[in-house]
Amino acid sequence: MDVKNTRLVAFAVLVALLLVALPFYPGTFSPGHDPNSYNYKHQIEEGPTENVTGEADNVTGNLDLGEETDVEQITYEYEELSPIAQVLFERTLNAESLTHTPAVCEEYVLICDGYYEHDLPSEFRYGAGGEDELRYSIIEFNGSQYLLRTGVLSSGAWENLHIAILVVLFRALMLLLGGAIITTTVIRLSDRWTGVNGGRYSALVGAGATFAVLGFLTPYLEIYGGIDYTSVLLASGVIAAIGYISVQYILRTRH
């Protein structure tokens, strides 16, 4: 085997190892941002209301906070809020719709353009659930009160099922492509290899390398490339198809 073929085989082995290992990394073919963005929604429902009486409940209106929830417990002066809570409140207040939803990255993302969930302020409650009164905060700002709501009451149990299915499917394709490269590499190293397969073998290895790179970069292409998550998966599917066609051609033409 000449030097060129030796390098190609060595590269193929490296690509195959990546294709076998990456499916066990949680970020492979996964979204970069939490798809449940509504869990982090901030909305000012009432305000500004002047606090002329000194009481903290004049902005709550007909809101039923429950017997165990004291209005004072959910009332904050702006200066008491953590820096992140202040930023999120101001962005909500300055938004035309009085609504702001920050970008929340998944924990496996190494570089985030927004916040990780553990960075969000502890003063506010996020996610979905039925304890409505715990989702409200009264913010006293510049002599006025604002009723801020975070998160949502409920969400569909299966609304992200399609994402989970796609992730499992593409990771399975990654394993199959890695196995195909290993199989064809063994054939290449055997005496049964014929020169007619060389171009297809290179195409297979190239498709595998591209598939591995796309799988790892999927969350970052969504975050920083502005590319839709579905579009990344579609491109990856085309690459996988090229790999499949290459394997079929190699297996049919070998002797």
What are the main properties of this structure?
single chain; 255 residues; alpha/beta; five-stranded mixed sheet; 5 helices; 12% strand; rod-shaped
Structural class, from helix and strand content?
Answer: alpha/beta
Q: What is the mean predicted local confidence, pLDDT?
A: 81
Amount of beta strand = 5-15%
Basic shape: rod-shaped
Query: C-alpha Rg, in Å?
Result: 27 Å
Helicity, as a percent range:
40-55%
Terminal CA distance:
18 Å
Strand order of the largest sheet: 2-6-7-1-3
Please report the total strand number as a whole number.
7
Low-confidence stretches: 51-57
Q: What's the total helix number?
A: 5
Largest sheet data: 5 strands, mixed
Q: What count of structural domains?
A: 2
How do the helices and strands follow one another from N- to C-terminus? HEEHEEEEEHHH
Structure overview:
- The chain is of the alpha/beta class.
- It has two domains: 3-31 and 160-253, no CATH class; 37-150, no CATH class.
- Helices cover 44% and strands 12% of the residues.
- It is built from five helices and seven strands.
- The protein has a five-stranded mixed beta sheet with strand order 2-6-7-1-3. It has a two-stranded parallel ribbon with strand order 4-5.
- The relative contact order is 0.19.
Give the secondary structure arrangement, pairings included.
Elements: H1 3-21, E1 42-50, E2 75-77, H2 83-94, E3 99-100, E4 104-105, E5 115-116, E6 136-141, E7 144-150, H3 161-189, H4 198-223, H5 229-253
Parallel strand pairs: 2-6, 4-5
Antiparallel strand pairs: 1-3, 1-7, 6-7
Helix pairs in contact: 1-3, 1-4, 3-4, 3-5, 4-5
